Write the structure tokens for this entry.
Amino acid sequence: MSIRLYVGNLPKESVDRQALHAVFEEFGEEVSTKVIKDRKTGKCRGFAFVTVPTDEMADQVIEKHNGQAFMDTTLKIEKALPREKAKGEKESSAPTPSPTTKRTASTNKKRQTTTTTASSSSGSVQPDPRWADDLARLKEMLAAQASNT
């Protein structure tokens, strides 16, 4: 069974798939890369996926290349969440705008962020595990600020 790895913190400029693939070529021909690009601009959206054949190889890639420099940025590599699971979480936490209401993308994003934050504080939605530690630290900092005032 193949394992997908999320490669984050890529520069938001034109990232060549072959250049990224060259980083992982030592692991063999079975490794494939896919740079995620913006449909309008064609520039990298800041992340990519690397697919490796085994879980052991995935662990080796993460151990060796997580934190490695690539095009003046530090790579962040971790196992990708299954697509169905991520899609289900997004649908359950994101509000669905009514078809009669017109909203701009920024308005939808603000609304989605507000709703997600409110529902996650009630305990019904768990934070993304990739950012859970950062979120916990932020909550502690906010609590400390509130108690100081």
Notes: The chain has five helices and six strands. Strands lie at 3-8, 32-37, 44-52, 69-70, 73-74, 76-79.
